[in-house]
Amino acid sequence: MLERLRCGVIGTGACGLAQLSSLLHCSQATAVAIAESHPKRAKEAADRYRLSRSYTRYRDLLDQPDVDAVLVAVPNDQHLQVVIDALTARKHVLLEPPLALTVKEATRMIEVARKTKRVFMVAQGLRLNRQTQLARQVIERGDLGEIYHARAFWVRRAGIPRIGSWYTQRRYSGGGCLIDLGARILDACLYLLGGFEVKAVSAVASARFGPRGLGESGWGGGEIDPKRPFDVEDFGAALLRLGGGRTLMLESAWASQAGAEVREQGIDFWGTKAGLSLYPARLFRSGDSGHETVNLNLPLAWEDEDPVHHFVRSVIEGRRPLVGLEESLQLQRIVAACYASAAAGKEIKLEG
């Protein structure tokens, strides 16, 4: 069994730097090299984390025999090729969401992971959050009774990534807030519901702020081309029909006029015995004196709350990651159905 996982990081934008920071604080891993095509970003990352090895071509990093795993944080349109190359090079892979641009790409990546028998995980950090794990325990105990409706939302007031960067161009990103924020919060919600089987979706998607140059956050370190159109959505919502007559409302926005007191992200469950709200974790139920709100006590921080740490431990200990490949693939199908529904203006049924 490996005692320390030797990792390379491919892509040193904001997400790649966050991964390097996590590796720095992970007792079972070490960062040995980076790959970054942008010379300035490569030098800044190498100097900041005191790395002696930096490659312009990611394939040169994959050729290194002392790299056991790679953490991939590149634009979405590059996920397919980078991940397949890494898996083929016998490296374990942690990938920043989303999994891929399309269901076809996602399916291909998972096929290669299974063939090469490497650990391949999408870094869905909300699943690992202490509040999410606490909610899982509450739900599994049956405290809510039968859950018949859920709401998952991630709504920012001014959170559009840098306009003109790859984030706001569909051919590079695959979409806007739905594939970004929406998919992440939806993953956590369906995980808590205990299944990713969605019967049908009815969705809308629009761009209300980005085309006017409004709502930008400055997030995103990619190059900007101001001549490129803003052709992704900055608002998206969907009604999902689940099995057993249950429903789920999904809302996502990169920019909005939401009030400052409104939670930016959250998941709400309505059950026949009680309701549950995240983030923060609160329970709503009927008591002797009427309805009461219970603030749930969180467990102490655990190392696996960080996706990088969880991935490292999964590889070293030979255990299955909490984020499964089949669930990640099904999430890709659901998001694709949302976009199809929004484009067609009608409900889309999912097979199976």
Written account of the structure:
The chain is an alpha/beta fold and about 350 residues long. The chain has two domains: about 5-120, Rossmann fold; about 130-300 and about 335-350, Dihydrodipicolinate Reductase, domain 2 (2-Layer Sandwich). It contains eleven helices and 15 strands. The protein has a nine-stranded mixed beta sheet with strand order 14-13-12-11-7-10-9-8-15. Strands 3-2-1-4-5-6 form a six-stranded parallel beta sheet, sandwiched between helices. A hairpin with a 2-residue loop joins strand 13 (about 280-285) and strand 14. Helix 4 runs parallel beside helix 5 (about 105-115), helix 5 packs antiparallel against helix 11 and helix 9 (about 175-195) crosses helix 11 (about 325-345). It is globular, with a radius of gyration of 20 Å. The two termini are about 40 Å apart. The model has no long low-confidence stretch (mean pLDDT about 95).
Ordered list of secondary-structure elements with their pairings:
Elements: E1 5-10, H1 14-24, E2 29-35, H2 39-48, E3 54-55, H3 58-62, E4 69-72, H4 79-88, E5 92-95, H5 103-116, E6 120-122, H6 125-128, H7 130-140, E7 147-155, H8 170-173, H9 177-193, E8 198-206, E9 235-242, E10 247-253, E11 265-271, E12 274-278, E13 282-287, E14 290-295, H10 307-317, H11 325-344, E15 348-349
Parallel strand pairs: 1-2, 1-4, 2-3, 4-5, 5-6, 7-10
Antiparallel strand pairs: 7-11, 8-9, 8-15, 9-10, 11-12, 12-13, 13-14
Helix pairs in contact: 4-5, 5-11, 9-11
